Amino acid sequence: MNITFKLFATLQDYLPAEAKKTNALSLELAETTTVAQIIERFGLPQKLVHLVLIDGAFVPPAERSSRLLRQGETLSIWPPVAGG
Amino acid sequence: MGWTRKILRVDLSNGTCKSEPLNMEWAQQYLGQRGLATKYFVEEVDPKVDPLAPANKLIMATGPLTGTPASTGGRYSVITKGALTGAIACSNSGGYFGAELKFAGWDMVIFEGKSAKPVYLSIEDDKVELRDAAHLWGKTVWQTEEIIKKSHQDPQVRVCSIGRAGENGVMYACIVNDLHRAAGRSGVGTVMGSKNLKAVAVRGTKGAGAIKNPKAFMQAAAAAKKVLVDNAVTGQGLPTFGTQVLMNVINEMGALPTRNHRDVQFESARKISAEAMAEKRPTDGKSHLVTNAACFGCTIACGRISKIDETHFSVVNKPQYWGASGGLEYEAAWALGAANGVGDLEALQYANLICNEDGFDPITFGATVAAAMELYDLGILSKEQIGLEAPFGSAQALVALAEMLVKGEGFGKDLALGSARMCAKYGRPELSMGVKQQEFPAYDSRGIQGMGLAYATSNRGACHLRGYTVASEVLGIPVKTDPLVTEGKADLVKAFQDATSVFDSAGVCVFTTFAWSLADLQPQLDAACDGDWTMEKLTLVGERIWNMERLFNNAAGFTAKDDDLPPRLKTEPAKTGPAKGLVNGIDKMRPEYYKARGWNPEGVPSKETRARLGL
Questions:
Q1: B523-539, pLDDT tens digit by residue?
Q2: Which in B160, B243, B379, B481 has the greatest CB count within 10 A?
Q3: At what angle do helices B535-556 and B489-506 cross, to 10 degrees?
Q4: How far apart are CA B218 and CA B213, in angstroms?
Q5: In a domain, B220, yes or no
Q6: Helix/strand number for chain B, H first, E second
Q7: Roughly how many angstroms between the first and final C-alpha of chain B, as a whole number?
Q8: What is the CATH architecture assignment of A2-78?
Q9: Testing the interface with A: which of B273, B475, B482, B485 to mutate, by most A Cβ within 10 A?
Q10: Is the ipTM, as predicted for this complex, more than 0.90?
Q11: Which pTM was predicted?
């Protein structure tokens, strides 16, 4: 299956150079891939993995290791950020 | 420093300035800045007053921590009856002006009446005088500040002023200090202009003093600074990316109001985001963002300083705009960009520079352009009426309209009204996206339900800074709540509103609340200020301030009917994103909120509530 993987703010440094222009990367994954496995695959520091959204909906930390990704979804991750 | 215990009263009609002792009984009940100045205001001004009449007053107020070593302790607020809203207005600004006013020995300045001719107020410690401003009238904020600094022969003098927007009656004019910090919302600059008051120049040499317990205060301030530094948001996220980092967050969440709230996601959001500001441009190989910047005493430094692309169509042959200057911040980038469907970062920066240079609120301006673009799209406004083609997404139209507004020419006169009055003029009042005639900021309340209630009940009209439930509903600060439900939002909004009232009255920046709770502020206030400032007392002060503002608005004629959202947000579901199919549940949340507040079903604080709060 195929998903879109997005990393923002300081986490964009963990994307390949060509993906930084869009903050997005297309990923081909096995059917049983979880959010936590993607985080691990890209070597994202746990303390920087703060806001995790799938298609814009919040994924609580406790569900990251059980939430399976599905065809066509967009997984987006931010470090701790805020604004106003 | 706590309070200086002195206020300056300036009668513009008679040209007199006099010192008065601060009412210390009120200081114990309303703390300072927003709360204390509003207390003075509601005691002295008829709620029914025309905001632009001489009988309206305008107060510039510091908080007890303004000018102290407390982190972010450089804030001041402008309190008046808002020109845009007709409601109580309180606009808060950073920079260095507030601290300088405190160093000069003044807790607040109350302006009353109207000068017969343009004047500015000069404050050098205790030496205070009104000076002729004929040579400043017609000048921009930037020119005014430069001229005053030169004439005072003191580069350290701090200036707040109005630009041509405030002089010309643009209903959402700002008061700008330190070139690009502003008391921005509700038309406080319009009120200042109506009084023929061009600027305030202040130089203070008295420094910090009168701290109740200096040793305890320095310890409390240092501990609180460590909290900010150690926090990932205030220590790293905000300094590095600024508020603009939210552009992609809110867009992904499907809560980025786009094209006058027709949509909730903007296809070009990334092009106008913090990430884009940090990238090198293909035209000149330089990044838009130059550096971050801090206001007085701030250890966060979220401000953005940028340089526009000199080859961009908006600034060709205009070298005065090529230098490093303030922006873009998230709210301005949204209002000038997504709200209009404009994805041209440089055009947004140019429009933002114009807002700073001539002093008008980019949120209301951008949202008013968005409403005009919808009227154009619907065929209600023609190219001939506007003076140019103005489809959604036109960077050329955005730039031209900003210039027309400043010059007060053509359709600029309609834009100067704000979206509510402009849409009413063209027979489509429902297309104004705001509350109490003030436009929404950058969060669509179909995707962040609590913000709908926060907007509807904000005492100064639609505003994110009165109850920023985005912190909880989106960012998980202090705890994560579900943005798509209405349950629990009445209590959440009330808690944010009351706590924010305290921070706004203390002299510190509300952005500290991404790391601080009231428990981090309380030891600093208790060590700095006379009296015992317990958590219980501060909590009550916050609620008291909110209800005082509400009672003023009630007396001014606002009712429960004004605590509402435009029909679009209640009847047109979000088209995409997690909130797809949802409208805002304001009609469910409003009565829950009134109950949580101890107000009657008409939105009026009950006798019991008023008695409990000493109102």
A1: 999 999 999 999 999 99
A2: B160
A3: 100
A4: 9
A5: no
A6: 26, 17
A7: 28
A8: Roll (3.10)
A9: B475
A10: yes
A11: 0.98
